[in-house]
Amino acid sequence: MDGTAQLTARPVRAFAYDPSSAPGSPHARAVAVLDANWTGTSTVPSRGLYPHQWSWDSAFIAIGLRHVAPLRAQTELETLLAAQWGDGRVPHIVFHPSVPLDAYFPSPDFWRSTTAGRAAGAPRTVQTSGIVQPPVHALAAWLVHRADPALSRARGFLARVYPRLAAWHRYLLHRRDLGGGGLVSVVHPWEQGMDNSPCWDAPLSRVAPAPARSFRRADLAHGAPEDRPTDLDYGRYVRLAADYRDGEYRDGRGAFAVEDPSFNALLAVSEHALARIARELGATGTARHARAERLTAALVERLWDPAYGQFLCRDVLTGEAVPERGVTGLVPLLLPGLPREVARALVGTLTGPHFGLGTRTRLVPSHDLLGEAFDPHRYWRGPAWFNTGWLLERGLRLHGERARADALRTAVLELAAASDFAEYVDPYTGEACGATGFGWTAALTLDLLHDASGEDAALRG
Questions:
Q1: Those residues with Cβ within 8 angstroms of residue 104's Cβ, 6 or more apart along the chain or in another chain
Q2: Could you give the CA distance from residue 370 to residue 353 in angstroms, rounded to a whole number?
Q3: Catalytic positions
Q4: Pfam families under this entry (predicted)?
């Protein structure tokens, strides 16, 4: 079977939960979404709103694909990593050449990767963006390998992706420690993945927006304006990206540099996964586990705020914490090396009045329910997302909160199916927002259906 085969051509493996593959079941519907979004070499997040390959989307999609089509899961990651730059960065978008330029903005002619990115080693044969997204890829690669080790070994999958993953982590740790404290900084809100979070409002306020006439927003053709970023915020995103491009994608302290909790937590988790990959390939993973532990310690030292009961973002340019409660500050619950009192406080914040999990909300809102900036529908300013639900379900389970993890798992599965696998939902009502038929929502549904125990998440060091 080659990488273009349909998911339905491969039998489903039975795990602790045996999902029904009958037509109309959540399992079958999730498989259909991934089939519809498959391009032959990768999976788009959605056909309309996001018609290219996105970096952390592909990692989450591979995690789900591994259960029903391990070869496709491997291909998903290989396609993304083939677009890696010479300096090690994995771009946040890999553009499909058959998609019209006006289908998505910023388009390839905005990023100009093959020219503006030449000094940083951008590939010559494929066009990409020049910024990055959270490093979930080593975790995804390890889970994909575990799904079918015989296939992985026969194809030399880990041996081929390991050097690229190592270079990717090296880029982040060496080029992006802009604060000098051992944590990675993001230089654009799109890099962190939670694009429109109120956590970025204060750092973004320094950025003069690009003139509205200088760009055309393609996203508004596919989503309600009240669900999307404002024109002012979008103008600032465009200005930051254009300045980074015009500087030939050189890393340094520009107008925006933020140490983000979830980005760094995911890097630490992926360092643990990369250690396991190294051991599978006959090397030692000791140094990588130690690096993950150092990242965890730096997170606690620099970004933990006991008064808030969660991690806060840190504005590198001012040296100050950003006093906003975003879901990003809860994601470090994934880390196996957290001090017990920190993990306990995170669970308290997650289930308390600011996020209301299990009382006011069934899924985790992306922002503080009590915050002035909270909006239950607007992109990352309040709606619940399925990837953060998946991450926090794993974190709860890792730290012994089995009942809460089970309840969150049930909510993710039920609301994903009920919302037609929406991009995100109203955290109170479950009403679908953004795109439907969304790739990572379908993929993570499959993962939760197959892996009810959470043991396969490989989050322990």
A1: 50, 51, 52, 218
A2: 8
A3: 195, 423
A4: MGH1-like_GH (PF22422)
